[in-house]
Design goal:
Order of helices and strands: HHEHEHEEHEHHHHHHHHH
Number of helices: 14
Number of strands: 5
Strand order of the largest sheet: 2-1-3-5-4
Shape: globular
Distance between the termini: 90 Å
Strand content: 5-15%
Helix content: 55-70%
C-alpha cells in the first residue's frame, strides 16, 4: 500500500515538476513498477531479454519463448555488466557488450528437475540444452522449465546470463555468505560449460561422440563425488585430484567415451570436476535429486544419446557371458550331489 501511495504521489508531482525532470521521474516510476512485478517472485514466470534487442525484436523473442500476450511475468534485461558477472567463460565481454539471446524460466513442483528447451536451435551456436541444464543445476537453479530463444545467430551467452540473473533477482541471496557461495558455484558451472563446449566442438564430426552421453557422465560423476565427499576431505590436493580422475575415467568408459575423448580433454574434465568437489554445491543434498532426474531424462529422451553400455556388449561377448554364467550355475548345483 505504501508503495502504491509513493508511486501515485510521484506521478502527481510530474504535472508540476519542470519539464527537464519529468523524464527522470518517469524512469523512477517505471523502476518502481518493475519492482512490484518482481515482488511477485516465483508465483509468475520470469523473462530475461537481451538489452541489444530492438522493440520489434523483443516482441519476436517473446513469441519465440511462447510467452502469451496476456501472461503476467517478471521482466528483466541482460546487459554487458551481467555478461561480465555471470558468463566468465567468455573473456571478451565488457560493460559495453550487448546481449541478444534470451531466457524464460518458470518454477515447477519439487522434484520435477530442470528441463530446458532451446526454441531456436538454429540461432544458438555454442550451448546445448544439456549444457544449459547442467549449468543451471550446478549453480543452484532447481525444479524449473527453461526456454531459450534468439532472433539472431548468437552463442547463447545472453540467455545463460539471463537464467542466473532471474535467480538472483527473484530470489536474492539472504546473506553475504550465501552470495559468495552462489558466485563460487556459478564459477564452477561456467568452467564446466567452457570445457564441455570445447569438447563438443572438437568432436562435432565424430559420430561416436554424444553430447547427451557426456552430460550423463558428468551427472554420474557429480553424484559419485557427493557420495565420497567425506573421503575427499581427508585427502591432500594431489590425492584428491587423482581420486576424482579415477571416477571421471570410470564414468566416461561406462558411457563409451573413454576412448573417444583425448587425454587433454579428460584432464580438463577431471580438473573441473575436482573444482566441483571443492565448491559449496557439493554439500547441497537437493542436487542429488536434480542430477538423477537430469540423468534419467537424458538416457530416456536424449536427442543423440547412444546407449554405449549396451552396444559395447557384442554378440561374442554375450555368448561368453552366458556360457560363463551357465558354467557357474552348473558347478554350484553339481556340488550338491557330489
Amino acid at each position: 500500500m505504501k508503495l502504491k501511495k509513493l508511486i501515485a504521489g510521484v506521478l502527481v508531482c510530474t504535472t508540476i515538476l519542470p519539464v527537464g525532470l519529468a523524464s527522470t521521474v518517469s524512469v523512477f516510476a517505471d523502476s518502481q513498477a518493475a519492482q512490484k512485478v518482481k515482488d511477485e517472485g516465483w508465483d509468475v514466470p520470469s523473462v530475461a531479454l537481451g538489452n541489444g534487442l530492438s522493440e520489434q525484436e523483443q516482441q519476436q523473442t517473446l513469441e519465440k519463448l511462447k510467452v502469451q500476450s496476456d501472461e503476467a511475468y517478471n521482466k528483466f534485461f541482460v546487459d554487458g555488466d551481467d555478461l561480465v558477472k555471470y558468463v566468465t567463460d567468455v573473456s571478451s565481454f565488457t560493460s559495453e557488450s550487448k546481449a541478444y539471446s534470451s531466457a524464460y524460466l518458470v518454477r515447477t513442483e519439487d522434484g520435477a528437475g530442470v528441463n530446458v528447451t532451446v526454441e531456436t536451435p538454429e540461432n544458438i551456436t555454442a550451448r546445448t540444452e544439456a549444457n544449459y541444464r547442467n549449468a543451471a543445476i550446478t549453480s543452484g537453479v532447481y525444479d524449473a522449465d527453461i526456454r531459450i530463444a534468439s532472433v539472431r545467430v548468437m552463442d547463447g551467452s545472453g540467455a545463460l546470463a539471463g537464467i542466473y540473473k532471474i535467480y538472483d533477482e527473484v530470489e536474492p541471496a539472504a546473506t553475504a555468505e550465501e552470495e559468495q557461495e552462489r558466485a563460487e558455484n556459478r564459477e564452477v558451472a561456467q568452467e564446466e560449460s567452457a570445457v564441455v563446449s570445447e569438447i563438443t566442438a572438437e568432436n562435432q564430426e565424430n559420430e561416436n561422440f554424444s553430447d547427451d552421453n557426456l552430460a550423463v557422465a558428468l551427472a554420474e560423476i557429480k553424484l559419485e563425488l557427493q557420495k565420497i565427499r567425506d573421503e575427499l576431505e581427508k585427502l591432500n590436493e594431489a590425492e584428491g585430484r587423482e581420486r576424482v580422475k579415477e571416477i571421471v575415467i570410470e564414468q566416461l568408459n561406462i558411457q563409451g567415451l573413454g576412448d573417444i575423448l583425448s587425454q587433454n580433454q579428460i584432464d580438463s574434465l577431471s580438473n573441473t570436476m575436482y573444482n566441483f568437489s571443492q565448491a559449496p554445491v557439493i554439500d547441497n543434498e537437493q542436487i542429488t535429486e536434480q542430477l538423477n532426474t537430469l540423468k534419467d531424462d537424458l538416457m530416456a529422451n536424449g536427442k543423440d544419446f547412444i546407449n554405449n553400455a549396451r552396444d559395447r556388449l557384442t554378440s561374442e561377448e554375450t555368448k561368453g557371458f552366458f556360457a560363463n554364467m551357465w558354467e557357474t550355475i552348473r558347478s554350484f548345483f553339481s556340488g550338491w550331489f557330489n
